[in-house]
Specification:
The complex is a heterodimer of chains A (114) and B (110). With 114 residues, chain A is mainly β. In chain A, 0% of the residues lie in helices and 53% in strands. Chain A contains no helices and 11 strands. In chain A, strands 2, 4, 5, 6, 9, 10 and 11 form a 7-stranded mixed sheet that branches. A 4-stranded antiparallel sheet of chain A has the order 1-3-8-7, with no helix packed on it. Chain A is globular. Chain B is an all-beta fold. In chain B, strands 2, 4, 5, 9, 10 and 11 form a 6-stranded mixed sheet that branches. A 5-stranded antiparallel sheet of chain B has the order 1-3-8-7-6, with no helix packed on it. Classes of the chains: A mainly beta (114), B mainly beta (110). The interface between A and B is medium-sized, with 22 and 23 residues.
Chain lengths: 114, 110
């Protein structure tokens, strides 16, 4: 158990809809990272938050947004969903701001868009 | 060309064999991670390296910053080592973002 909790584990929805994925980091970790893993693109970094502030941005679409709340949990909002958004979405956490510390991954949220 | 390249893409080994997975990168990095992903999908961080060598149990990871190359070795491989192994480089040139290799699918047969 990594200590990182992601909900929901599975989600099936239709094109055009909006979903919210939630991540609770390991106790004491201030950074939360979101990643997308699809069959054709592999793992891609989406966005990082550190102590409530956006710290780094990767290949995140404009239809997607995220935030980190004062209790350090984070939400990833995906809107106007398309078939191609079907993927595993992982959250990871770490103590520091960069990627130079150990990363702890959640189990992932599997999104299926029909 | 991808910024992070892994080889081989697929690897089948017999139990007990010594295994090497390679990762090369074309950008300046501040660190490199090796990750393990089991068939269920969960990802576990194995190593984070910025220089030299690290060992944990039967796993050894090395990095040569000048040659832009890292290797993950598994000694005395076991069927439970069957997983996807992913290297991920911390790309300094884009504000320390993590760039992933495509992964190596390892199957260890008993």
């Amino acid at each position: 158990d990594s200590g990182v909790t992601q909900t929901p584990k599975h989600l099936i929805t239709a094109t055009g809809q909006r979903v919210t994925l939630r991540c609770s980091p390991r106790s004491g970790d201030l950074s939360v990272y979101w990643y997308q893993q699809s069959l054709d693109q592999g793992l891609q970094f989406l966005i990082q938050y550190y102590n409530g502030e956006e710290r780094a941005k990767g290949n995140i679409l404009e239809r997607f947004s995220a935030q980190q709340f004062p209790d350090l949990h984070s939400e990833l909002n995906l809107s106007s969903l398309e078939l191609g958004d079907s993927a595993l979405y992982f959250c990871a956490s770490s103590v520091g701001t960069g990627f130079t510390g150990e990363l702890f991954f959640g189990e992932g949220s599997r999104l299926t868009v029909l | 060309k991808n910024e992070v390249e892994q080889s081989p893409q697929n690897l089948t080994a017999q139990e007990g064999e010594f295994i090497t997975i390679n990762c090369s990168y074309s950008v300046g990095i501040s660190a490199l991670h090796w990750l393990q992903q089991h068939p269920g999908g969960g990802i576990v961080s194995l190593f984070m390296l910025s220089s030299g060598k690290k060992k944990h149990g039967r796993l050894i990871a090395t990095i040569n910053i000048q040659e832009k190359h890292s290797s993950l070795h598994i000694t005395a491989s076991h069927p439970r080592d069957s997983a996807v192994y992913i290297c991920a480089a911390v790309n300094m040139e884009y504000g320390n973002k993590l760039v992933f290799g495509a992964g190596t699918i390892l199957r260890v047969k008993s």
